[in-house]
Amino acid sequence: MGARPPVGACQVTTNHRRWARARRPRIRKCLRKGCRRRYRARNWNQRYCQDPECLRRVRRWQAARRQAKRRQDRDVRAQHAEAEKDRRRRTKLVSQTVENSELTPARGHAAKFCFSLPVCDRPGCHKAPKKSVRNRARYCCAVCRQAVRNVQDRERKWLSRGTLDGRKKRFLEYQAAHNRRVPQQGSITNPSPLRAPPD
Questions:
Q1: Is the pLDDT of residue 133 over 70?
Q2: What is the DSSP string of 158-196?
């Protein structure tokens, strides 16, 4: 038997495996308002738990936003008013021919929400945004605004985490948080030193 050819260094190093473990998404809380379910994300940009009922409500919220945005157009409002006028005329004719006829009330999501108003930007929230004098408000309250900002901030940090500039910024953020947490010198018995910033 001949000698075996030389084998190079293994491609998967321990540092690479440790970095891959650190990049795994943590357990998150569903972004949809009203769903406080915790889940482990499969992708870095997964915002909702994969419960079918939760996803159905998110799709309803997206449809409500599309409808509200569409009804801001003046031509669409005129077309809708004309269609409602025809519907009322047909209903009046039917009610005259059929005795003791009752109008069927609105069913489903049409009975709860009015789609002609703008809708809050947080998924699952059907409330109207607060009125603002300076600029158009996007959220109904500070809780909805902070929930969406937390998710956007997490996604921004995830994307910048693999770059050199992102690692430097994260080091500065961790250093500032460490300085806020640790009391003044003298009361610390065994401080844990921070790692040096990446070059």
A1: yes
A2: HHHTTSHHHHHHHHHHHHHHHHHHS--TTS-SSPPPPPP
